[in-house]
Amino acid sequence: MGIWVRDFESAEWRRLPGTENAIEFFWSPDSRSIAFPTGRELKKIAITGGPAVTLCEMPYTIGTGAWNADGTLLFTGTSEGPVWKVSEAGGVAAAVTFVDTARGEIVHWVPSFLPDGKHFLYLMFGSPEVSGIYVGSLGSKPAEQPKQRLLATRVAASYANGYVFFMRADTLMAQRFDSGKFRLQGEPVPVAEHVANDNVFGTFAASPSGVLAYREAPVTNGQLTWINIQGGGMTAVAEPGPYYGIALSPDETRVAYRDARPGDIWTVDLADGRRARLTSRHSFTLNPVWSPDGRVAYPGGNLEDTLFAKDASGAGGEKELYKKAGLHMVPTSGPKMGVFCFIKP
């Protein structure tokens, strides 16, 4: 664990001490320092070594960010909140954007500075009508940030060398961007195919010099398999395919899973391997969970602010269990209780 660095002229990697609990990291403009969150703290460290310095502390887990030449760092939470800023000297963080839940916004993510160091791109995640890439400004008040969507997407984008880079399924796209008028130009073109992403981040980096680095997407097909923990053999179940968020039913006769990210929920009968579609939402829903009476629960709605349940047989329609605007449903279940949910504000 930790952050490792290597000079291009060297074959040796070295770990930066004090970064063992780093979750993400991002570089300073001069490439001499790295900022990284460790839970609720944002820290920085020189790549030559030395102690890590805490810049600020937040009430929730910090995600990734960006650093400009004027010494301002932007960052966000991993699952909630707006874009924040703090000085490279440290201090109290201040909000830069405002999450308008009444408009359908859930969270603001992954800021990326534009060339002037005063404007930035960020991902607004929420209802289909608002989810996408927006341009923010350090000179605007949080509630007065522009609300013109630059690009409709639920995956982060970044700017480099006159282009905005973004994901379309597993294809990395590039589109010319006027950094003075803050608008896209022309049509997007594919740059690389089969690029890995985790729903929010595409696994790529583009440098101002025109160098692009990316990681290919792993093979998504897998094989459901019973394994005897007493040392016996393995028994394959159903045909190979994409299985995400596998959940075993309480009676151990069926499995519920998602077929893609985004995707739908399916079930598999473990006796004969038959698969059956349970939903047709093609959404970014979280993993399914079971109730003891054979129902499958999952969040839904444009903002995932509604908890649904449906009989695993597929019979009948889905039932709305709970809904509250502005809240993000994360369901779970236990063997001796009904389905319940943890709610994030």
Characterise this structure.
- By secondary structure, this protein is an all-beta fold.
- Helices cover 0% and strands 46% of the residues.
- The chain contains no helices and 31 strands.
- The strands form ten sheets. A four-stranded antiparallel sheet has the order 3-4-5-6, with no helix packed on it. It has a four-stranded antiparallel sheet with strand order 7-8-9-10, with no helix packed on it.
Tag the structure with descriptive keywords.
345 residues; mainly beta; Neuraminidase; 2 domains; four-stranded antiparallel beta sheet
Helix-strand blueprint:
Blueprint: E1 4-5, E2 14-15, E3 26-27, E4 33-38, E5 41-46, E6 53-57, E7 62-67, E8 72-77, E9 84-87, E10 94-95, E11 105-113, E12 119-126, E13 132-137, E14 158-160, E15 163-168, E16 171-178, E17 183-192, E18 204-206, E19 212-214, E20 221-227, E21 234-242, E22 244-248, E23 254-258, E24 265-269, E25 275-277, E26 289-290, E27 295-300, E28 306-311, E29 319-323, E30 328-332, E31 340-344
Antiparallel strand pairs: 1-2, 3-4, 4-5, 5-6, 7-8, 8-9, 9-10, 11-12, 12-13, 14-15, 15-16, 16-17, 18-19, 20-21, 22-23, 23-24, 24-25, 26-27, 27-28, 28-29, 30-31
